[in-house]
Design goal:
By secondary structure, this protein is α/β, with parallel strands linked by helices. 32% of the residues lie in helices and 24% in strands. The mean pLDDT is 92.
């Protein structure tokens, strides 16, 4: 028997499963889920084409056995009751083919998470184009800090917990709700499997051009997500995105509340200011004024996302003081404005930004936190969408606030035709015309040498990429350390 999405579930109930095998285990989400399942008491194995640190080290530490490469023989060794198929796996994958041929029960990662983790739990889902990982981490930490003992699974390493997941005994489960497709046999968005009862919609801007035709198609996924909440549910939505508010109000049966970093909303701030310690602000909510809060982060977008967390936390019964304590003790997420070092007086910050809005907001946030230091923005447009010209104009305006900009010319991608590629030369020319000293190269070593040659004590180097950037940051740090 299979469900409407192609998950083959014959004879499967959570109590009947002891051995689980994950195909595509080295991905961030799949690897973390493997660790979560192992910690929950299942016997867990996985397979992948290649496994590198840090995920290989993390899987080993969690006790998850990993087999390479993909092969039917891996199933003989694993003897699984259930196979979980990652969304990077194609139908022709030899191991996935063997799973089907042998009739082994299998599910997608989101469907398995919904069935094995969220059953009888209160699911808190953080969705939206931007800010999901950091916001999910703040939400989870506030609930932990308040003593509710939640579980969570997020897409980045939380610095408070040194990991992507937590298995708690409380009723709440916080999960980052991704709008990307689920598996080769289920092309619907992942977040529809997460049984949201309480949710946040941080933003809706066009993304994932490889699977969504246009903005209307992209927004339709969020319509389905909003409609999936129960009538007694709660949906917090960012007032700064009118289309997100419209989606929430037209599609959701749940109660909808708006939030904002400034301006009119159900939950908003007063006296917002930024400094080296982060953001300080007063919260105004439907119950009145809640007093002053400290969030050890910078940027209006992070304050806005924290306001959504506040709205949800109040709805779940937390006091303003409990949330205040959670905000103040939040230490962040790796690769989200993460300070990597300050050798020779040059501050190096690592961030995951790749959409032009994220690039713009991150630069603004770092400018607010370090207003007296020269900012050099270094960017790799790596994702399928960021390397396309659909955001050509937006990128020319995304670097405002930086004194210098260095951009990596992306390598050719078989899914991005030449006619649709981002014109890096035109972006660089436009930035120079604006007075931002800009350059570009496809060669990471060339970029490292340029930055090392131009960086001086007191500079802030903001490196933005949703990938490894060819080892740019380690090479940069090594070069800067040689000056010290």
């Amino acid at each position: 028997m299979s469900d409407d999405n192609g998950n083959v579930l014959t004879g499967i109930t959570p109590g009947s499963i002891t051995r689980i095998h994950l195909v595509g285990v080295a991905g961030t989400g799949m690897g973390s889920f493997a660790g979560m399942l192992k910690a929950a008491g299942y016997e867990v194995t996985g397979s992948d084409e290649q496994v590198y640190p840090p995920m290989s080290d993390m899987l080993a530490a969690w006790g998850v056995g990993v087999m390479t490469p993909y092969a039917p023989a891996n199933l003989d060794a694993a003897q699984p009751d259930l196979v979980i198929i990652g969304n990077v796996i194609r139908r022709v994958n030899p191991e996935a083919t063997a799973v089907r041929e042998r009739g082994i029960p299998h599910m997608s990662f989101p469907a398995a998470f919904g069935s094995l983790v969220l059953a009888d739990k209160h699911s808190v889902v953080i969705a939206g184009t931007h800010g999901k990982t950091t916001t999910s981490a703040i939400m989870a930490h506030v609930l932990v800090s308040a003593g509710t003992d939640p579980s969570f699974l997020v897409g980045g390493v939380t610095l408070n917990y040194a990991g992507n997941f937590r298995n708690g005994n409380g009723k709440y489960v916080v999960v980052e709700g991704d709008e990307y497709d689920t598996a080769y046999f289920d092309k619907g968005p992942k977040f529809l499997h997460y049984r949201a009862r309480t949710a946040m919609l941080t933003s809706v801007e066009f993304d994932h051009a490889d699977i969504y035709r246009d903005m209307a198609h992209y927004e339709s996924a969020y319509d389905k997500f909003a409609a999936s909440l129960p009538a007694d549910g709660f949906l917090a939505v960012a007032a700064s995105y009118p289309n997100a508010v419209a989606i929430a109000r037209r599609s959701s049966k749940a109660y909808v509340a708006t939030y904002a970093a400034h301006g009119t909303a159900d939950y908003t701030t007063q006296n917002l200011r930024f400094g080296p310690e982060g953001a300080r602000f007063t919260i105004v909510e439907p119950r009145g004024v809640a007093g002053e809060f400290l969030l050890p982060m910078s940027g209006h977008h992070n304050v806005e996302n924290a306001m959504g967390v506040y709205a949800i936390a109040r709805q779940l019964g937390l006091s303003a003081d409990q949330i205040r304590e959670g905000f103040a003790s939040f230490t962040g997420v790796k690769r989200r404005q993460e300070i990597r070092g300050e050798p020779a007086g040059v501050l190096v910050i690592d961030d995951f930004a790749h959409h032009p809005t994220a690039v713009r907001e991150t630069i603004t946030a770092i400018r607010l936190r370090y207003p007296d230091r020269r900012l050099w923005a270094i960017f790799e447009p790596r994702s399928n969408t960021s390397r396309r010209n659909i955001h050509q104009t937006e990128y020319t305006h995304a670097f405002e606030g930086a004194a210098l900009a260095t951009i990596r010319v992306p390598e050719p991608h078989d899914k991005v035709p030449i006619s649709e590629q981002l014109d890096i030369a035109a972006v660089v020319q436009s930035l120079n015309d604006q007075g931002i000293v800009a350059d570009a190269s496809p060669d990471v070593d060339v970029l490292v040498k340029r930055v090392l040659a131009g960086a001086r004590a007191g500079d802030v180097l903001l490196v933005m990429s949703n990938g490894a950037f060819g080892g740019f940051i380690p090479s940069l740090l090594t070069g800067l350390q040689s000056r010290a």
